[in-house]
Design a protein that fits this description.
Layout (H helix, E strand, L loop, with lengths): L2 E6 L12 H11 L3 E9 L9 H9 L2 E10 L2 E9 L3 E8 L13 E9 L2 E9 L4 H12 L13 E6 L7 H7 L3 E2 H4 L19 E5 L3 E7 L4 H6 L5 E7 L1
Parallel strand pairs: 1-2, 7-8
Antiparallel strand pairs: 1-12, 2-4, 3-4, 5-6, 6-7, 8-10, 9-10, 11-12
Helix pairs in contact: 1-2, 3-4
């Protein structure tokens, strides 16, 4: 049964303020995923020792890796990645629109790959939305429109996942669930799935949204001594089958 994980890794700096890429690898390795969506990765940044965190994590898990830089200043990059053990190809990566009325907002982006699961194509889109509600709404509408989910190449089945910084009561959530279904509600087995903040998770702001053709078996957020400290988010895991 395929397993997909979304995980905001907080540039691999844990709640103990320690930078440790290997600890993020350990969290993911114990989950044994087939596809991983990561947010808040540093690539070549001085603050984290000029390490390519996306590549390091992919190497540690023996996965292929695609990275999208939402922010780039000279050689320093910051953004999101998709990792997988499945046959894959990059479909698209790029920025999401911001909210011009609020200056100096952190740039945001999205990354889309197609993977082959048991001979069947599956579209996977990873994103990390902003913090300002109006900004989030603009970005969610963009993702739901012809540039991404309504793109001619985005043929079901598809999974949109990531850190949306928005709960189920938000306009963002309603915008995306007008196109896709929230995996938590479809899961045949229920388990705790709040992801933030990791030491005492009370918010569900990381999500999987799925199209028809995906049978969700379980969604859960592993809560143990390692996941509580490795990042400020818990990973969110989804086990599924292609119908």
């Amino acid at each position: 049964m395929p397993r997909i994980v979304t995980y905001n890794v907080h540039r691999c700096v844990g709640n103990d303020r320690r930078l440790d890429v290997g600890r993020i690898v350990a969290v993911l390795a114990q989950l044994n995923p087939d596809i991983v969506a990561l947010q808040e990765l540093d690539v070549g940044r001085r603050r984290t020792g000029h390490v390519d965190q996306a590549w390091e994590i992919a190497q540690g898990l023996d996965m292929a890796c695609h990275f999208n830089a939402a922010l780039q200043v000279e050689e320093e990059r910051y953004g999101d990645a998709l990792l997988t053990t499945f046959p894959e190809r990059l479909v698209k990566k790029g920025p999401l629109p911001g909210y011009p009325r609020v200056k100096a907002l952190e740039p945001r982006g999205a990354l889309w790959i197609e993977v082959e699961v048991d001979g069947k194509p599956l579209q996977v889109i990873n994103t990390h939305l902003g913090l300002v509600p109006r900004e989030q709404q603009i970005q969610a509408a963009h993702l739901a429109g012809p540039a991404w989910l309504d793109h001619p190449d985005c043929v079901w089945p598809a999974i949109l996942l990531g850190d949306f910084n928005a709960t189920a009561s938000s306009v963002v959530y309603r915008t995306l669930t007008s196109r896709l279904s929230p995996a938590r509600r479809l899961a045949k087995r229920r388990a705790p799935s709040s992801t933030f903040p990791s030491p005492l998770p009370v918010l569900r702001i990381d999500h999987h949204f799925v199209s028809p053709g995906i049978e969700v078996q379980e969604v859960f957020a592993p809560f143990d001594p390692l996941t509580r400290v490795a990042s400020d988010h818990l990973p969110l895991v989804m086990d599924f089958e292609l119908g």
